[in-house]
């Protein structure tokens, strides 16, 4: 892997952002008035949004954007006609007009000078490619997760957002939710003692490929643009089943799987708890249906398939030498001592994306790093990809986060990247 | 038939995959095994296997292929369906053979397929391909030329840079953006090879070129960072720019460009910027994590526009140290609710034991609003050493200070402070303050447990019924024999309100705590011999609840206990409670008692449901015939279709 070329103090810059992320439970760092959103917002101060890949999840996140007073959406894009129309209806209803433009090819949307930022909620196959193209087109990007298909894409994503200085927010909205932020703050501020073990519950640990299925008659392009849907994925004939983007090309062909789907959330939270937004575990080993990883600082990361916490989906548990805390999507806590929970703050169950969207929009204005910036997302995804590779090879692998290569492991190293279908590139 | 054949072929491939992974899993270095595997995969590509099988085979070769596979993969680069799959393998296979195959394809392919090959060459950074790629910069197809430009950028070096620089001036408009992208990548190559001057030159060339503005912005960023400290003037130029995008690049590079001198220059610039931009630059300064920025943030927090002050106060949470305490305390005691809230929050979160010590040292001399804030902070920061000073504030003449002291003692107080709170309760006639004191008292009681009981005696012995009841509440939280004895004693109180409250407390007494088992007997007494009917009802309900949750009782004992109070269970509410207990105590006695309860139409259906639940289980002392008989009876008598069906279904399972 290519080393970073620009001579910046990356560690310092990242650490700063990490510290900012650790103070999530606090109010906005910058007053709303200073960002022009404490009352009616002048048109010139609004952030103009285009939305790309607007299926069910996309429309939910788009709804979060549309609720923000300083946001104005003017265009939507999807390879499916029905999705385009639903999204347009949603935007037009908010804007009170019929002006929302629709596109099949997202490059046409990116070419518009009047769009500041894009929401990308395509399937995982497109995320990294579309996000980096958007950055190169001068757009700030909120991108749903998983954000990359492999380790190489993760690194390129971070590299390109650094180079273009565009704002990136991975759709890992739990970073912006008070209960997760509070648990992370306990871990990071020493309230649990030196950290020892982190537990993440990715669910569906296992690898699978989306493959090639028997051809079916291809719908007209206005209904489904199959070529655009395939995008950077290797060619295969149209099959209705593969139109479910949720299962298509998640983590590449051979070694994708559940670890990315949930790991991009819960492993990501463990990364943050361990002050590891600029690195990843150095060892990964499948152990009795679990995946045990270890960071260079000695902290152990356990990725589990089975549920063990009664705190809702996506649970995490952070164990230190003197205490532990766990939380999940129902926003409840478990802790070794109630005194740890004294300042837990507001309970917000249901993992809404509103706070995360707000953080993104604020950073579009301040140009600060978002809570789930490209570097943080890069390393959390690398942890998941490396775990998948260990699961696929069914053995221990060791990773060097400085060189970004597996140590003495030809086969694992070849799984770090995958060629994109022509003409796409990152 | 075709599907079957495909299925078979897939199985073969998956077996190869599994075998491959397995071999690796066992860490077998056996080259012959791997060679054989590769030969098998090559054979699939050379066969008449369906395209889909060949595609997946290419993916296998990305992991297990060597230069032996290259001759078979290379022709697939011209295959529209398989080219992308073949490149997956060729991009991954190490060695010159794959490079050569991709280079050779440059002269044979057109359009998208050619773009794909160029992209792969760029990924592999094949220096030997530079000449051919330079030629492709002039390709009539903009997609091909653009791909070549970016690939050259990835490869980097003097030759690629010369070609791209030249092209920057004369490339068609549709290609120029990619050429500029290639140039920026080359500039990064120079930086990585410690040739900053060349990088700066290239960035400056791009800044002036006729390329999309995003490329300009990237070049500005690169030009600032490559110049290091000498880049400050260019950075400040961006911060002052009227263009929003340039301001954005300025704010981003203000975070990235390292150096104390840079921090100082930006701090000076902060004062010169227009007020609307100051919070933005202050945030950027804060992200530099340079301690030299702290005086600037202090100053901004102290005075000036409110927005800037609040921004600065929030920044102090992550950058600040003990030196920030005076500034924050000043803001926290101003008559501005927003400032007070933000500054207090900052003081709560400011890290460091030295901050605790500083706040503690200020407490004895503090008066008025400052005293109140310090007391609240002691609670939020859990500064236990502050307790004596806070306890002395319990009797302050200022209601705000008294309230803060009570609340804080509730948060961090220990059993010794129970006595302070009890004394305060005795002295306080203000009905508005008593709830706060009680809340604090309950909080300590829950935390410190039985150690508080001696301190609570003045309350339980008080003639003031309100105080007596507060004492009982605290005891109920503590639990245990001593607390139970005090509550039982209060049931005999001459004061009706105290008596009622004691009965209510007893009726909800926990039944699963160590030392609380005695509550059952007291509840039974209440249920059977209390003078007041409401006390009997509460006692009965408490007793039934106690039986239900008591894990020490066997099923038979639970049924016997209910039999003891059977004559008192008259109302449907308590009958339902009894049924709930019996449903969880499967036994012959429970079935018999439920059968009798089912005779009352008011609760018959609940009883039937419980009977079905019990009769569905193997129970000691109950034959299958008896179980069938119960179920048959329920199926016949129940008016509820769901219960009937459940009874019939259960009946079928009893064989």
What report would you give on this structure?
- The complex is a heterodimer of chains A (426) and B (655).
- Chain A folds into 2 domains: 10-176 and 354-375, NAD(P)-binding Rossmann-like Domain (Rossmann fold, 3-Layer(aba) Sandwich), CATH 3.40.50.720; 178-207 and 253-350 and 379-414, Dihydrodipicolinate Reductase, domain 2 (2-Layer Sandwich).
- Chain A is built from 12 helices and 17 strands.
- Chain A has helices at residues 10-22, 56-66, 81-95, 106-110, 124-136, 151-164, 178-188, 226-230, 258-273, 354-366, 374-393, 410-414; strands at 47-52, 71-77, 101-103, 117-120, 140-143, 168-170, 195-200, 207-208, 256-257, 283-287, 290-294, 300-303, 316-320, 324-327, 333-335, 397-400, 405-406.
- In chain A, strands 15-14-13-7-12-11-10-16-17 form a 9-stranded mixed beta sheet. Chain A has a 6-stranded parallel beta sheet with strand order 3-2-1-4-5-6, sandwiched between helices.
- With 655 residues, chain B is mainly alpha-helical.
- In chain B, helix 18 (294-302) crosses helix 19, helix 23 (368-380) packs parallel to helix 25 and helix 25 runs parallel beside helix 27.
- Chain B has a domain at 566-655.
- Chain B contains 39 helices and no strands.
- The interface between A and B is large, with 66 and 94 residues.
């Amino acid at each position: 892997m290519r080393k970073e070329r620009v001579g910046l103090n990356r560690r310092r810059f990242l650490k700063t952002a990490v510290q900012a992320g650790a103070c999530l439970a606090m109010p906005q760092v910058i007053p709303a008035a200073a960002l022009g959103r404490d009352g009616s917002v002048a048109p010139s101060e609004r952030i103009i949004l285009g939305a790309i890949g607007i299926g069910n999840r996309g429309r939910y996140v788009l709804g979060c954007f549309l609720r923000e007073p300083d946001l104005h959406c003017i265009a939507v894009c999807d390879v499916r006609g029905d999705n385009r129309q639903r999204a347009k209806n949603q935007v037009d209803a908010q804007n009170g007009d019929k002006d929302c433009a629709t596109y099949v090819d997202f490059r046409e949307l990116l070419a518009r000078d009047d769009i500041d930022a894009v929401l990308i909620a395509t399937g995982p196959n497109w995320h990294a490619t579309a996000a980096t193209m958007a950055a190169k087109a001068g757009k700030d990007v909120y991108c749903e997760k998983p954000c990359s298909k492999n380790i190489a894409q993760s690194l390129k994503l971070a590299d390109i957002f650094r180079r273009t200085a565009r704002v990136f927010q991975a759709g890992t909205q739990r970073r912006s939710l008070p209960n997760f932020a509070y648990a992370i703050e306990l871990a990071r501020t020493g309230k649990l003692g030196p950290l020892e073990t982190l537990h993440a519950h990715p669910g569906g640990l296992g690898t699978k490929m989306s493959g090639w299925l028997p051809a079916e008659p291809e719908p007209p392009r206005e209904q489904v643009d199959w070529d655009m849907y395939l995008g950077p994925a290797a060619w295969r004939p149209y099959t209705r089943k593969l139109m479910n983007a949720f299962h298509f090309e998640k983590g590449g062909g051979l070694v994708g799987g559940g670890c990315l789907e949930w790991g991009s959330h819960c492993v990501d939270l463990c990364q943050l708890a361990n002050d590891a937004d600029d690195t990843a575990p150095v060892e990964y080993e499948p152990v009795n249906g679990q995946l045990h990883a270890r960071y260079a600082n000695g902290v152990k990361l356990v990725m589990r398939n089975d549920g063990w916490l009664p705190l809702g989906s996506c649970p995490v548990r952070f164990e230190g030498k003197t205490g532990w805390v766990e939380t999940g999507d129902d926003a409840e806590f478990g802790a070794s001592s109630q005194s740890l929970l004294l300042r837990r703050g507001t309970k917000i169950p249901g993992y809404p994306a509103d706070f995360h969207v707000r953080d993104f929009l604020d950073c579009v204005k301040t140009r600060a790093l978002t809570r789930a910036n490209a570097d943080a997302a890069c390393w959390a995804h690398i942890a998941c990809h490396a775990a998948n590779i260990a699961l696929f090879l069914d053995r221990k692998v060791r990773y060097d986060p400085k060189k970004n290569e597996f140590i003495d492991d030809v086969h694992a190293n070849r799984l770090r990247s995958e060629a994109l279908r022509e003409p796409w590139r990152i | 038939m075709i599907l079957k054949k495909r299925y078979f072929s897939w199985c073969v491939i998956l077996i190869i995959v599994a075998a491959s992974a397995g071999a690796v899993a066992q860490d077998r270095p056996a080259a012959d095994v791997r060679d054989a595997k590769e030969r098998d995969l090559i054979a699939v590509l050379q066969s008449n296997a369906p395209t889909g099988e060949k595609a997946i085979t290419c993916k296998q070769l990305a992991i297990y292929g060597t230069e032996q596979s290259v001759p078979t993969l290379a022709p697939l680069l011209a295959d529209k369906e398989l080219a992308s799959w073949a490149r997956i393998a060729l991009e991954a296979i190490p060695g010159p053979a794959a490079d050569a195959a991709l280079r050779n394809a440059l002269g044979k392919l057109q359009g998208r397929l050619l773009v794909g090959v160029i992209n792969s060459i760029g990924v592999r950074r094949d220096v030997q391909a530079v000449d051919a790629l330079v030629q492709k910069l002039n390709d009539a197809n903009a997609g091909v030329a653009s791909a070549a430009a970016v690939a050259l950028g990835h490869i980097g070096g003097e030759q690629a840079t010369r070609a791209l620089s030249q092209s920057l001036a004369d490339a068609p408009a549709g290609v120029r953006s990619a050429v500029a992208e290639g140039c920026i990548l080359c500039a990064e190559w120079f930086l990585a090879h410690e040739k900053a001057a060349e990088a700066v030159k290239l960035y400056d060339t791009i800044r002036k070129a006729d390329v999309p503005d995003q490329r300009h912005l990237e070049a500005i960023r690169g030009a600032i960072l490559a110049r290091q400290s000498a880049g400050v003037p260019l950075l400040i130029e961006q911060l002052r720019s009227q263009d929003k995008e340039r301001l954005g690049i300025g704010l981003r590079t203000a975070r990235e460009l390292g150096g104390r001198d840079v921090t100082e220059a930006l701090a000076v610039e902060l004062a010169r910027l227009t007020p609307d931009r100051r919070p933005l630059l202050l945030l950027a300064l804060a992200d530099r994590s340079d301690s030299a920025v702290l005086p600037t943030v202090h100053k901004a927090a102290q005075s000036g526009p409110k927005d800037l002050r609040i921004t600065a106060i929030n920044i102090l949470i992550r950058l600040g140290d003990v030196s920030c305490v005076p500034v924050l305390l000043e803001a926290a005691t101003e008559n501005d609710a927003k400032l007070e809230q933000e500054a207090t929050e900052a003081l709560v979160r400011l890290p460091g034991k030295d901050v605790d010590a500083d706040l503690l040292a200020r407490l004895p001399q503090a008066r008025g609003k400052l005293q109140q804030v310090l007391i609240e902070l002691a609670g939020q920061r859990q500064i236990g050493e502050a307790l004596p000073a806070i306890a002395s504030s319990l009797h302050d003449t200022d209601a705000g200070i008294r309230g803060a002291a009570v609340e804080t003692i509730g948060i961090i107080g220990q059993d010794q402070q129970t006595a302070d709170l009890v004394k305060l309760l005795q002295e306080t006639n203000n009905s508005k303050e008593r709830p706060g004191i009680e809340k604090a008292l309950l909080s300590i009681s829950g935390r410190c447990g039985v150690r508080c009981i001696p301190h609570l005696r003045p309350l339980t012995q008080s003639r003031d019924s309100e105080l007596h009841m507060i004492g009982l509440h605290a005891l109920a939280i503590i639990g245990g024999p001593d607390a139970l004895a005090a509550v039982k004693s209060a049931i005999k109180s001459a004061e009706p309100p105290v008596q009622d409250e004691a009965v209510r407390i007893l009726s909800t007494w926990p039944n699963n705590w160590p030392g609380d088992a005695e509550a059952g007997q007291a509840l039974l007494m209440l249920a059977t011999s209390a003078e007041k009917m409401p006390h009997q009802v509460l006692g009965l309900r408490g007793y039934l609840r106690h039986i239900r949750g008591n894990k020490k009782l066997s099923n038979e004992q639970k049924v016997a206990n209910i039999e003891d109070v059977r004559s008192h269970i008259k109302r449907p509410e308590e009958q339902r409670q009894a049924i709930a207990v019996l449903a969880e105590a499967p036994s012959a006695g429970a079935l018999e008692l439920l059968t009798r309860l089912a005779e009352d139409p008011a609760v018959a259906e609940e009883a039937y449901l419980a009977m079905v639940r019990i009769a569905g289980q193997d129970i000691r002392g109950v034959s299958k015939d008896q179980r069938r008989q119960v179920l048959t009876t329920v199926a016949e008598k129940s008016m509820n279709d769901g219960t009937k069906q459940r009874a019939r279904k259960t009946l079928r399972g009893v064989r």
